Amino acid sequence: MDSTEILALLEKPTRYRRRFVYQIRDEAAVADIVAALRASTQPHTRSLLCYILNLRAGAEFFEGRSSETKQAIPALIEALADPDEDVRGGAIDALGHIGEMPYRILCNDVQREGAKSSPGLASELFCYMPLHNIWYGIIL
């Protein structure tokens, strides 16, 4: 399943697009999900793609597998600048599931530089941090 097929599934007119989420999570390569995330012009689709990466990272973690979703980190960091709040929130969730280090590095970068230039993003990350500390067991 390539990025074009992923976008076709998620963007076709239907009442309930989420039924394709698990199919994409299980069948698509991470690189194709990332390509679809970067190519999509629909905020709801980008949000679903972040959610799919989040689900995949969680499944890999609970199955004790090495996380293939780490290759999505650059695209998820790009998604933090998305104009849509749901996309930004989905990217934060996915980064939290991928692992502690990307989230820690991201928070440190925002604290050092982003808080001045992007107070909205900084507040989203810092307000979200305690939930990740408790929910995912991340210790910052």
In short:
73% of the residues lie in helices and 0% in strands.
**What gap, in angstroms, lies between the N and C termini?**
37 Å
Give the CATH class. Mainly Alpha
Helix fraction bin? over 70%
- Secondary-structure-based class equals mainly alpha
Cα radius of gyration in angstroms? 15 Å
CATH architectural type = Alpha Horseshoe
Any idea what the shape is? globular
How many domain regions?
A: 1
Description:
This protein is an all-alpha fold and 140 residues long. It has a single domain (3-135), classed as Leucine-rich Repeat Variant (Alpha Horseshoe). Helices cover 73% and strands 0% of the residues. The chain is built from 8 helices and no strands. The protein has helices spanning 3-11, 21-27, 30-39, 43-62, 73-79, 85-98, 100-117, 119-135. Helix 3 (30-39) runs antiparallel to helix 4 (43-62). The radius of gyration is 15 Å and the shape is globular. The model is unreliable at 114-119 and 126-140 (pLDDT under 50).
